[in-house]
Request: fold
Amino acid sequence: MRPLKAYKNNEFLMSEEARGVRILCEYLEPDLRFRKTGVRNTVAFFGSARLKPGVGPDGRDWYMEAARLAERLAAWTMAQHTLQERFYICTGGGPGVMEAAHTGGARVDAHLNVGLNISLPFEQHLNPYVDVERAFQFHYFFMRKFWLVKLARGAVFFPGGFGTLDELFELLTLTQTGKVSRLPIILYGRAFWEGLIDFGSLAERGLISPDDVDLFRYCDDVDSAFAILRDELRPHPAD
Reply:
């Protein structure tokens, strides 16, 4: 009987002792695939996995608006940018707002959709608008969030719950502290966001700097959100 090589020992690879190896895989394997598929610049769409198509209690169809914005963005980047500078529609890959954004992207070209899915016991499943080349499955939340931010040149936050808020405050913190370059951050749906978070109160209490409230903009319609992205998106510098 020949001994099993360590890197083929599945029992070891799934053990607590090999956690560092698994984490490294969730960095190296996506990095290789992004390079192979030419994905260098993304616009990240965030929002609830629970939102469905149709007008909700607040009188808005967030699903439709997310799809329209992603479609406008996809059509614009296909017409205006070389393959190296193209902006991809990146989401957590699941249902709700994530599916809506990929629906819009697929109306132009499904190859513009990037889905960074996460293994969860409920809610999360890869939506059908992401092709296999640009579909990723993560176990570790922090590695998934790393890739959501690493390639992002802009971010749009639709109404969402704990996960959306977590991603919003992480991106704001990274931008505030200079860990990532300044990029357009849009909070879509002013009434929702102002009713949820009083950023002005944080500034008045000295808990954030007055300038920190300029790290993001509110938008209430597809046209204004698209105008900000069109005017401010810049691709990553060439390697």
About this structure: The chain has a mean pLDDT of 94. The first strand starts at residue 41 and ends at 46. The two ends are 48 Å apart (CA to CA).
